[in-house]
Amino acid sequence: MAESMAITASTLSEYIGPFVFDTKQLRSVLKTHLPSYREYDPKTWPLISAISISSSGEDYDGLKPLPWKVAYTTDIAKKYLENYGSTRKRTTSVRKGVAMHLLHRYFPANFNEFGTLKAEPGMSIREYNAWVRDVIGAGGSDGSAKKRKVAAPRSAVTPKPQSTTAGERRESFATDSMAESTWSDSPVPVLSTLRSTVSADTAFREIMEMLAGRPAEFGSEADLHAQLYQTQVELSEQTRRAELAESKVRQLEKQLRERETEMRHVKQEADAANGRMFEVWAGMRYLDAERREESDVQEDGDHAPCAETEKKQ
What spans are recorded as compositionally biased (Polar residues) (predicted)? Predict the structure, then answer.
């Protein structure tokens, strides 16, 4: 029995307006052009097509990471998946005790809870309710993520000596950061360091360790996960570029080996041709010598009778 749908391709309105590849900028643009748009309610999301993206002045080839909090036509989502396939098996912790597949977390209208591309954009009622519950949490039915303020413990402002171990650095970060009364929407400082790491999994583990070590919850958790997702996407793109570069190097090495083999064959053929030319030249010299010898013998034969006649006379 087919599930009842909360969102279908026909209920999503195709977006016609300015498009940018930055999620926050696109969100601001959508709020201006679509008054009903709510970033945490997929029912209000516009449907972005190739025509929508072309308004940015370029056709989407799958190389750039897509902004989230919108729905995409299947052809766009497929191109994205082809270039960022490394995210297929990744999951993210939405909040304490709740994990979700990355693709479903950020593109629920295009990928199901297992990260599989849907035949067409949409969400069932069950899927929609589960996504809203898990992403927004209790008290978030208004479609917006509520930010929670955290009071700073008095002991938090005490200066701490510079740590040397990874564990001490995490402890120092967790304590000193509590001196702020709120967490802003800007990325957590450690993310600038995490962007330079090789593995997105390592970045994820370090952030989760810091979250587990904090004595109280903090606000803007959705923004933190958004930054983590962006880091993972950028690392995936860097990995893809590295793989393309390695593939190009292997291709060039293969071409070089083929050229070297070809040059060896050409040299062998040239040596063989030189040998044949020498044989022909030697044969011609031999035939020329034989002709000269026959000519000399014939001349001697012609003059011999004349010599005998002169002697008799």
Answer: 174-185
